[in-house]
Structures are given as C-alpha cells and as structure tokens.
C-alpha cells in the first residue's frame, strides 16, 4: 500500500551536545544507510564522530560491482564516512553474518577500546531489534551496550516508527521492527543530502532496488532515536524522554507492525573484518532485505 498523503510530524528533543560520539555498526554501509542522517546532524553541530565497523561485509549477497568485496567495502566505508564528516573509521575483521558467534568479551573490548581512545561521550547504535532483525546488527548493539555499562556512557539507539516498519514489511515481505510513539525519545528533523551521497558511495551495495530508498521516502525528513542507556547526569538541556511533545500524525500505512516487543528471530547467517583508517545496512547473506 502506498502513502497517499504527506505525513505531518512534529519534531521533539535534540541531540545531546557531546563533544565526541562513537557509532558502532556491523557492516560497511550501516553508518550511511542507517545512521547517516543522524551522524550528519552530529557532525554539522560540531561533534567529532568516529565509526567502529565490526565486519568487512564480505558475505553480502549484493555485489553491484566486480572485485573483492571486502576490499571494495573498506574503500566505500572510507569515502562514505568522509561525506558525512566522520573524523575516523575503525574497521575490524570479525566474520560477516556470524558476529553473534564471536566471543562477546572480544566485541565489548573492541567497542570499549575505541571509545576510550577517542574519548567518546556517548554511543550511537542500531535499535536492539536490529531494525531489520539482522543477527549482526543485534550482536553489534549488544556489545556496545555492555561496553557502555562498563564505561558508564549514554547510548542512543536509532529506530523507525512502527507504521514505517509495517509498511516496509507489507511491501517487501520483510521483518522490520518499529516502535510506538511512547517508546521514541527523539524525533529529529534531518537533512538527507549528505546521507544520500554517502549511501551512493557504497557502490557495491546501493542498487536501485534496495529497500533503503523506500525507507528514506517513508521517513521523509525525520529520524527517530531511543535512549537505550542514560548517563546518571545528562548535560543540561538534553531531552532524555518523551516529555511534552505533540503527537505525530501519519496517514494509514496498512496493518500495524506485529513485531514490536522484544527481539525477533534473527535472519540466517551471511561470513568478515582488522584495519584502522582515518577519514555500514546489513551485508545480507540472508533473506532480510537491505535497510
């Protein structure tokens, strides 16, 4: 079912005024396809952004250009991050599609060490549902949350409204997971120009039929975040919950999402990445569509 009217949304909340943010993702292109507009908003506000990508995405079933996928996606990650104003990318060599089989302590230390090195004041991650139920997304967020507990850092999780998830699931037979208004803490008005440029830098993955483009269409100029871990003391003026906001008004998008509580069954595995360079939607080797 297609949208017949433009949704009316009222933004609420603001990004925290962190001097440095660490985005933790599973694959090259997650930082653009998923977190791109939020990372752009951070960097445009003067926040120093670092991206930690835990795999090279070499097991993706999408291969838009010829060549070694792991090498291609390393270069794509660097170019995309530059477009978003990201200061540093750190790329690990963990197996793509099997991140949940890696020793948890190793992943936690990966996150914690990068956060300490770059003096991150907060973490930015995918929602614990993985957004598209991808097992690598879920594993990356779990590791980030546990590292944040150790470091006592706040964590923002990127999510999508349940109406958008339901629409994507209806159109693509997918397993997107959304949240109700009451569970969303920040509704950000965003600019998508640099996110689109960054996404297109992932030449091997940004194919015309990607669900990414439909998701961006449905979200319009808004992105949605949840506080997954709040610091004991948030900086003055930081909105930390759904207080005093006007409800969003959205057109009917079909049947409501059915996967709103908890983490859904993950999709099948996909295989991946350790280099660090200054300058991530799932590399799907599964039936889950791209973000």
* Count of runs of 4 or more consecutive helical residues: 8
Approximately how much helix is present in the residues? 25-40%
- Share of residues in strands: 15-25%
Low-confidence stretches: 1-9, 233-290
- Average pLDDT across residues? 81
- Quaternary organisation of the protein chains: single chain
Q: Look at the helices and sheets and give the structural class.
A: alpha/beta
For the biggest sheet, the summary is: 8 strands, mixed
Order of helices and strands: EHHEHEHEHEHEHHEE
Rg, nearest Å: 17 Å
Distance from first to last alpha carbon = 19 Å
Anisotropy-based shape: globular
β-strand number: 8
Strand order of the largest sheet: 6-7-5-4-1-2-3-8
Describe the structure.
With 291 residues, the protein is an alpha/beta fold. Helix content is 31%, strand content 16%. The chain contains 8 helices and 8 strands, in the order βααβαβαβαβαβααββ. α3 links the parallel β2 and β3. α3 packs antiparallel against α7. The longest helix has 17 residues. 53% of the residues are buried.
Concise overview:
With 291 residues, the chain is of the alpha/beta class. Helices cover 31% and strands 16% of the residues.
Give descriptors for this structure.
single chain; 291 residues; alpha/beta; eight-stranded mixed β-sheet; 8 strands; 31% helix
Q: Could you outline the blueprint of secondary structure elements for this entry?
A:
Layout lengths: L19 E6 L4 H5 L1 H9 L3 E8 L13 H15 L4 E7 L9 H14 L4 E5 L8 H17 L3 E5 L2 H11 L13 E4 L3 H9 L9 H9 L2 E8 L45 E4 L13
Parallel strand pairs: 1-2, 1-4, 2-3, 4-5
Antiparallel strand pairs: 3-8, 5-7, 6-7
